[in-house]
Amino acid sequence: MQAVAGVVVLASLYVLLGVGYVLVYRASRVLNLAQGDLMMVGGYALFATVTTVSASPFIAVPLALAVGAAVGVLVYALLMRPMAGHPVFAAVLVTVSLGILLRVAVVLVYTDQTRYPLPAMDLSNPPVRLPGGAAVSALDVVTVASAAALLGGLFAFLRLSRLGIRMRAAAERPLLAAQRGIDFHALFALSWALASFAGALAGVLYASNVRLDPSLGILGLKAFAVALVGGLDSLGGLVAGALIVATVEVLTIRHVNPLLSDVSPFLCLLLMLLVRPWGLWGTREELERV
Amino acid sequence: MSLLDVRGIEVVYHRAATAVQGITLDVPAGRIVALLGPNGAGKTTTLRAISGFLDADDARVTDGDVIFDEVTVTGWLPHRLVRRGLVLVPEREKIFETLTVTENLEACRRGGDLEAVFTHFPALAGRRRQLAGYLSGGERQMLALGSALLCQPRLLLVDELSLGLAPIVVRALMKAVRRLRDELGLTILLVEQNAAAALEIADHGYVIENGRIVHEGSAAALLAHDDVREFYLGGARSRTGRTYRDVKQYRRRRRWFA
Amino acid sequence: MAYGSGYFKTSYEADMALVDTRLRRLALAALIALLAVLPRLASPFVLELVTQTALAAVGALALNMLTGLAGQISLGHAGFLCAGAFTVGILTESVKAPPLVALPAAAMVGALLGILVGVPSLRLKGLYLALGTLAMHFVVLYVASEYQARWGFNTGVSVPAPVIAGIRVRTGVQWYYVLVAFAMLTTFLSVNLGRSRVGRAWMAIHDREIAAASLGIAVARYKLLAFVASSVLTALAGALWAYYRSFVSVEAFSFVVTIEFIAMIVIGGMGSTLGALLGAGFVTLLPYGIDAVVGALAPGGAAPYWLFPLKFGAFGLLMALFLVFEPLGLVGIWRRARTWVVLWPLRYAPLRTVR
Predict the structure, then answer these.
(1) Fewer CB within 10 Å of terminal CB in chain B, N or C?
(2) Do A181 and B83 touch (CB under 8 A)?
(3) Across chain C, what does the average pLDDT equal?
């Protein structure tokens, strides 16, 4: 039972991170390898607001999330929009540079000392007993709830609202969208803002639940493996992929070797690439096959 | 009075290749104007230049102006032009294939009612929830026209309406286009390789070859013009009295003198 | 190539010659002479910089063959380096193998790994291939770290100085000659491959794989060949790195190292040998340049704590700037300057070509 709880919590974290990958990939066919660093920036934004603005979580958390979303918009406007006509690989490399720059900026301001924002907000993280004898922390529960809420909200938004339909249209054919009056640059900026928001949410939760230091970006790399396993342009696939990879990882930690569990998302990814490269629910035509 | 006034535009791709040069068109309000020409003449480029290029196209209007409703709109981005009422129905990627028909129309809607589109194009009404990627060619064209209509255009640019469609479908679509002009008062610039179908509904026409306008006139004058008839309308010379010139292996050079 | 006027090739040999004009021959001779006597003229520090650049150049040239010429995007470059270095480390430590055995072994391990990484490339392209190679990189690092944790005293494996052709290569000058010679050989190999049938096949595959296949090019074979050629060279570079540093540890082969090499070919200019060399020099010397600038602006005193992140961030920033503003890289700038000089006072805006 503890294992199941662990899987669900880990999968929720992967979902929060993976949402960013899927949104950005659907919008502009770019894999944002800086998603993990955006998560780290979200965590540090929380730390910054807690130490400078207000220690109340009701102010600090929304402010940190807003900062995260704003960073996403800035990233799009300054870095990704000029890369509009360039090949996709170049855009991916730009996101890698972005990750480096974000990390450097954070280290310059906050050094690599590990931080703990939770006590600064006068909150604690008590364990929660679950039926079956498992125990998780309160923030673990919040993580799972946030992931579910975010997913539900995004599904509804993209399927039902007019703005969501427009986003899907702009993602499929930007030129046609422009010719139909849709300002796709604004919509792509919105995708990046949402992706960054999701990353910041993951960062805020992880920083409060575990710890905060500049190397958090590594989790982002594991999350991209998850996103690929599920299918880079499918939110539903992301859930499935997250559950599968989280299961493999937790089982590996418990029964094999903790070092191997760090690599297990990539082993899953390799297996997926050999068998079904477009992921569980991804769109097949994204891929040219020999 | 002319709704669209294109004055001597020149379009250069990749800063190296001139696609069209010295294109001057005039589209009066409430009329249908046809732009005829062979493959690669520059018709699509002209329409794209009028309706706006994206940064990613690496194309620029290096000379001349496009004046829409007395406002110079050269180099504007497409979505700005749509807000002013200049809408393009493109030649190839004209619908969103992963969205349903209803979603396609909703995405484009700036005002107006979806039902009006289904009235104009009844064939779409039965396929509201179908993915647009599964529509047939004629239905796609109808959906493209319908979604363009929902952008509330004043000037509609239509690129190759008849491409790849059966003659009966082409006739129906052309009738629909003429109805749009009659009922909604739309102004339409129609680019066509199928000159016969286009000149049937057009009021005025231009012929473009190798990036330049080579001839213009009213539709009736074009239908009667010898060279237009030989090169674009399938040649309507009489069967008797064929001279050696008619069966020569090389094509007679076009001389665009009235 | 932009020539002045007056150069006419009158025989096949002349056309195929690597260095064709007299000016180029003179320049090459001068360069070789300069490299030969550099140890006499330059300080040990400068020599060390050139040595490091030479080693980086080999890795950059190998990556250029794979990603620039053949278009197979690989994010696992550090994995090949690691494999080569660890092969040397393991062999030297466990069986005391001499370089004559360890170096070819490293090359073979590199080749095997190249095939392993190359097989997915037969099915995947573009982004998916890049991510597959990235996943492979993490797996290779994991294997290496397992070895290091069990047998490497947890911090790494130490490697004694190698004996090559009877000489114990230990001093900076000796390493300079060895690594610069290696870099020159690799440059020669790279240029020759680029203008041979193999190179043309790679470029065809890069541009349009289906068209290449329909022209009769054995796509699968050439793709694997690209991976193997690149991985063998990189593994050898890693092996020499192990000897040069006398120490091998997993931490030195993180993802950042891959990014450094990619930055080299991006900043230098993808698909061009000169670009790989320029990029290797640029990225290797950048941290020292920043040191020099900071030292000049704020002389004396200890290095501020923000210097290390600044150096790290600077090359990320530069890579982003080059990607956005100058996709053709340093080679693009060089070619534009050369065209301007050759064509002056005539001017025309050149077509934007990839190579």
Answers:
(1) C
(2) yes
(3) 85
Q: At residue C347, what is the residue type?
A: R
pLDDT tens track for B120-171:
888 898 898 999 989 998 899 999 999 999 999 999 999 998 888 999 999 9
What are A236-247's pLDDT values in tens digits?
A: 899 999 999 999
pLDDT of residue C347: 64
pLDDT (average), residues B45-74: 89
Q: Tell whether the model's pLDDT for residue B50 goes beyond 90.
A: yes
Tokens 């790399």 found at: A221
Residue pLDDT, tens place only, A155-167: 899 888 888 889 8
Give the closest-approach CA distance of C352 to chain B in angstroms.
8
Q: What angle do CA B172, B175, B180 make, to 5 degrees?
A: 125
Helix ranges (H only) for B158-244 are 167-184, 195-201, 219-224, 226-232
Instruction: Write down all domains in chain A, each with its CATH number in brackets.
Output: 2-275 (1.10.3470)
> Largest Cα–Cα distance in chain C?
67
By C-alpha distance, the chain C residue nearest A227 is: C131
Residue C123: CB atoms within 10 Å: 16
Mean of the per-residue pLDDT values for chain B?
86
Q: How far apart are CA C69 and CA B188, in angstroms?
A: 49
The C-alpha atoms of residue C306 and residue C14 are separated, in whole angstroms, by 54
Per-residue pLDDT at A119: 77
Q: Band the pLDDT of A288: cuts 50, 70, 90.
A: very low
Residues of B in contact with A183 (CB under 8 A): 79
Q: Burial, B176: exposed, middle or buried (Cβ in 10 Å; 0-12, 13-18, 19+)?
A: middle
- In A, which residues are within 8 Å of B88 by CB distance? 179
Q: Is B245 on the interface with A (CB under 8 A)?
A: no
Q: Choose the most confident range, by mean pLDDT, from C87-101, C192-206, C307-321.
A: C192-206
Q: Does B32 touch chain A (CB under 8 A)?
A: no
Tokens of B193: 């390789």
Question: Is-contact A89 A67, C-beta < 8 A?
Answer: no
For residue C69, the 8-state DSSP code is I
- Provide φ and ψ at B130, rounded to 5°: -85, 145
Q: What does the radius of gyration of chain C's CA atoms come to, in whole angstroms?
A: 21
Give whole-number Cα distances, A19 to A169, C82, C313, in Å. 19, 33, 27
Å between C219 CA and nearest CA of chain A: 10
Q: Which of A177, A172, A164, A159 has its CA nearest to residue B151? A: A177
Mean pLDDT of C317-331: 89
Half-sphere exposure at residue B222, Cβ-oriented, CA atoms within 13 angstroms: 28
C142 to A260: CB separation less than 8 angstroms, yes or no: yes
CA dihedral C136, C139, C145, C147 (to 10 degrees): -100
pLDDT at B252 over 90: no
Q: Which residue has the tokens 């490269």?
A: A277
Buried b / exposed e along A46-60 (16+ C-beta atoms within 10 A)? bbbbbeeeebebeeb
Q: pLDDT digit string (tens) for B2-36?
A: 899 999 999 998 877 889 999 999 999 999 999 99
Q: Which of B12, B13, B15 to mutate to test the interface with C (most CBs of C within 10 A)?
A: B15
Tell me the pTM.
Answer: 0.85
Element (H, E) at B252: none
Predicted-assembly ipTM surpassing the 0.90 threshold = no
Q: Which chains are adjacent to chain B, needing at least 3 Cβ pairs under 8 Å? A: A, C
- Other beta carbons within 10 angstroms of residue C32's beta carbon come to 12
Encoded tokens for C60: 């950059």
Contact C128 A266 (CB under 8 A): no
Say whether residue A228 is in contact with chain C using an 8 A CB cutoff.
yes
CB A232 within 8 A of CB C135: no
